[in-house]
Amino acid sequence: MSVLDLARPELRAMQPYSSARMEASGGAILLNANESAWAPAGEAGRGCNRYPDPQPAALLRALAALYGVREEQLLVGRGSDEAIDLLVRAFCRAGRDAIAIQPPTFGMYSVCARIQDAGIVEVPLAADFTVDADALLAALTPAVKLVFVCTPNNPTGQPVPRATIERLARELAGRALLVVDEAYVEFADGGSVAGLIDTYDNLAVLRTLSKAWALAGARIGTLLAHAEVIALLRKIIPPYPLPLPCVTAALEGLSAQGQAEAAEHIRIVRAERARMTPALAALPGVREVLPSQANFLAVRFDDAGAAYQRLFAAGIVVRDVRRYPNLGDALRITIGTPAENARVLDVLNGDRA
């Protein structure tokens, strides 16, 4: 059985849009795409009178090397959000198919499903916010085509063991595509499961340059998956998803200097996370700091609303996650610079200076 048997048959048979840039490349005089012959004003717009490559070769090479996959196993889009949306549209028929999620988790999985009119099977995380694989597998119906697992999980920070990922991929074979969201994996101890793609054709992995690579504003996200899945999604992704300035920023970020800077920032975040965890736990009014392998900490308070307002009044904005299941007393605090983290501790300790 091919993993594409899980996808919408009408998309598998669809003739994709063929853009001018896809049909022909090279040449000195470009008159095939109805572009302006003149470059726009300003240095930032250099080259922007031309449509960008749909999947820029240099960026594909850099990301394939970074993630340890082949270029045909990689799709680049506008953040992980676009990949999530493409997956739901490709595998879920409106009003018939469904996705499975484990709340509390990243909200875009359910948003994309609702936009597609796909069902949502919710299997809550265990009391300690770990994935209950037995409960998840037992809850799946034949309608479920995508199972999303976020590791480390957002907004709680716990990783999912590699053995659990392998078990899910194995037992979902022929039933559903397992989508592992690794947006925060650079900050974790366990590493990526991207190396399992060659073993399980029903495994897909989401990666992003937004977090550890400091490129949230560039919106560069990547889906790693079996080549057949990538080829299908390339049929339905918009023809020019990656703005040229964003591609330039990504390539600079992935340069030798950019990788060295990212490694140093990751080291600082991990050290600060280890420092902030006991420091926050010792503050008055803090009930618990959830263990985290991400670049944030979920913190339970006696009065989370008052803590949020105290921080906001001091010019510090954190994420109020009280609307999430089992987090009705919690705020999510991103690990900032050492000075920013020190200020958070001072404010929560009653210092308003």
UniProtKB/TrEMBL annotation:
Its cofactor is pyridoxal 5'-phosphate. It comes from the Bacteria. Transmembrane segments: none annotated. It holds the Pfam family Aminotran_1_2. Pathway: Amino-acid biosynthesis; L-histidine biosynthesis; L-histidine from 5-phospho-alpha-D-ribose 1-diphosphate: step 7/9. GO terms for biological process: L-histidine biosynthetic process. Its EC number is 2.6.1.9. Gene3D superfamilies: Aspartate Aminotransferase, domain 1, Type I PLP-dependent aspartate aminotransferase-like (Major domain). It catalyses: L-histidinol phosphate + 2-oxoglutarate = 3-(imidazol-4-yl)-2-oxopropyl phosphate + L-glutamate. The modification N6-(pyridoxal phosphate)lysine is found at K211. GO terms for molecular function: histidinol-phosphate transaminase activity; pyridoxal phosphate binding. Residues 43-348 form the Aminotransferase class I/classII large domain. Keywords: Amino-acid biosynthesis, Aminotransferase, Histidine biosynthesis, Pyridoxal phosphate, Transferase. Homodimer. Belongs to the class-II pyridoxal-phosphate-dependent aminotransferase family. Histidinol-phosphate aminotransferase subfamily. This is Histidinol-phosphate aminotransferase. It comes from Dyella marensis. The gene is hisC.
